[in-house]
Design a protein that fits this description.
By secondary structure, the protein is an alpha/beta fold. It has one domain (about 10-270): TIM Barrel (Alpha-Beta Barrel), CATH 3.20.20.100. Helix content is about 35%, strand content about 15%. The strands form two sheets. It has an eight-stranded parallel sheet. Helix 5 (about 150-155) links the parallel strand 7 (about 140-145) and strand 8. The protein is globular. The structure holds NADPH dihydro-nicotinamide-adenine-dinucleotide phosphate (NDP). NADPH dihydro-nicotinamide-adenine-dinucleotide phosphate (NDP) binds next to helix 9.
Length: about 280
């Protein structure tokens, strides 16, 4: 069943009723901290209401400064952050959450995510997220990078089914089976690296679609995400791109072109495979 797509203020409803804006801004840009603050401000000033960060990005302070500079009220913003691999386990997760809130100078976040499924620890981590959720300190909880078997394992003992699974997702990595599983379990699918970290612009298939719809390659791909019911968070630090990436509400991709894009899938990852990620890595 397709979800309704309207404009940049539009949301998909999570299974606990929380409305999550379906287009947001990614902030993973390790080179320049000023760019984070600036891009968050620019995005909010241009109508975005959803910002994605993480403890490991070490930019929660910069995100906060961008929010403050935008003058958009906190209550109007959907803010996500994540617990990193070295902070797994019940107590460490609670501490990591407090640290994030300190960096953000906020008393809640909208969505708190487990960043990667660290083997042997993610169930304890999840209990901490469930407690934070029950205490009302986060409006929703979820995971990133959980494959079907990891979700099944987590849900075996979970009291709260994750509301979101944030995964690498783009035309070369669709993982339709996983999307179906998430849909069946009311877990909202979310895309990270929707533009393949910039590599989509080299894909020859998209030139024609871009001409056909008179839209840029990025716009066609981001529209594809929304029509698939996938929440998407392209990162850009350039104002014209931040604006253009949100100019995707005046056209619709046909069903046959949606199928054509789906068929490009080649299980190609720009990032690690959740089954063999090097868990000791600390960025
Ligand atoms: P994206 O797929 O969003 O691609 C970002 C790259 O595309 C940047 O180089 C950007 O350059 C460029 N770009 C953006 N818009 C355009 C445009 N319209 N035309 C041309 N180039 C463009 O990659 P990310 O890896 O950043 O993913 C998005 C977000 O997902 C992250 O920022 C982060 O918040 C999250 N994430 C989550 C992960 C997880 O494990 N949960 C893992 C990785 C990312 P420029 O800035 O110069 O415009």
């Amino acid at each position: 069943m397709s979800k309704k797509i309207t404009d940049l203020t539009g949301t998909f409803k999570l299974h606990n009723g929380v409305e999550m804006p379906y287009l947001g801004l990614g902030t993973y840009m390790p080179k320049d901290r000023y760019e984070v603050t600036n891009s968050v401000r620019l995005a909010l000033e241009n109508g975005y209401r959803h910002i994605d960060t993480a403890g490991i990005y070490r930019n929660e302070n910069d995100v906060r400064m961008g929010i403050e500079a935008s003058n958009v009220p906190r209550k109007d913003i959907f803010l996500t952050t994540k617990v990193w691999n070295s902070d797994h386990g019940y107590d460490k997760t609670i501490n990591a959450f407090e640290r994030s809130l300190g960096n953000l100078q906020m008393d809640y976040v909208d969505l708190y995510l487990v960043h990667w499924p660290v083997v042997g620890l993610y169930k304890d981590t999840w209990r901490a997220l469930e407690d934070l959720y029950k205490q009302g300190r986060v409006r929703a909880i979820g995971v990133c990078n959980f494959l079907k078997h990891q979700l099944e394992d987590l849900m075996e003992d979970a009291e709260v089914v994750p509301m979101v699974n944030q995964m690498e997702f783009h035309p070369y990595l669709v993982q339709q089976e996983l999307i179906n599983f998430c849909n069946q379990n009311n877990i909202q699918y979310q895309a990270w690296s929707p533009l393949m970290q910039g590599k989509v612009f080299e894909l020859p298939e998209f030139q024609k679609l871009s001409e056909k719809y008179n839209k840029s390659i990025a716009q066609v791909i981001l529209r594809y995400d929304l029509q698939k019911g996938v929440i998407t968070i392209p990162k850009s630090c350039k104002e014209e791109r931040i604006i253009a990436n949100a100019d995707i509400f005046d056209f619709e991709i046909s069903e046959s072109d949606m199928n054509f894009i789906d068929a490009m899938d080649r299980n190609f990852r720009t990032g690690p495979n959740p089954d063999n990620f090097e868990w000791s890595v600390v960025l």
